[in-house]
Amino acid sequence: MNDKKPRINLEQVNVAANRLKFDPVALTPRPFEGISIIHNINSSLAGILGLPKIASDLQSQFARVGLNTQIAFVSRDSFHITTFNLINEPEDSGKLHGQTYQHVRDCVEQAAKDFLRNYTLRAAATVSEVGMFPSGVLKLEVALSVSDKLRFKEFRLELYEHLKRQIEMNYSPVRGKEWSGGHSHHITLGYIVNPMNAEEASLFSDTMERFKFVRVDLELTQGEVTGFRNMNEFFRA
Fold this sequence. Notes:
The chain is an alpha+beta fold. The protein is 35% helix and 27% strand. The protein is globular.
């Protein structure tokens, strides 16, 4: 079976969006407040699973070929898998039909907590390979069975309907009217924040294709409502 994926055109990566999260010179996180439902992996388990070493090894491989300034890596102290992106200030504050962001955020947080009180979802998952979204977000792919993917999609759609019912401004502008519950489970490793020329893009793609690690199994849950101040600071809401 041919598992090779088509290369992403790095010239089309929107580094401006990623620069909302990380400074392109210092490669440090910028303020990016919000809340999501996240399956948090504590530092002890992350170490047992080898996640910090995977991230460190990949960062070292990029540095070895001279790509240490194009990519901002997230902290290796916080590994997590988002199961539902709830709301964040930089991207969503302009969608709220005159309501203040803080008011809507607080309503979303409470409604999501109420929903999760009676919801339990568990599935076997595998951290399978390194990948990248077309937006330039480096990630570890998290694979689920077909049936478990469907269960998590049903969870997201049920929560979405709950949020629309509970929130006075109607939650649909945040997600978009055509949203159908799709989501790619992953662990974020970093963001491309500076454009690459053709030679650098080739080095990047070659490094990604060559990088391998031993697959890691873990249990994925629906997660918990988690706040973040930036892409390195996460806390239980």
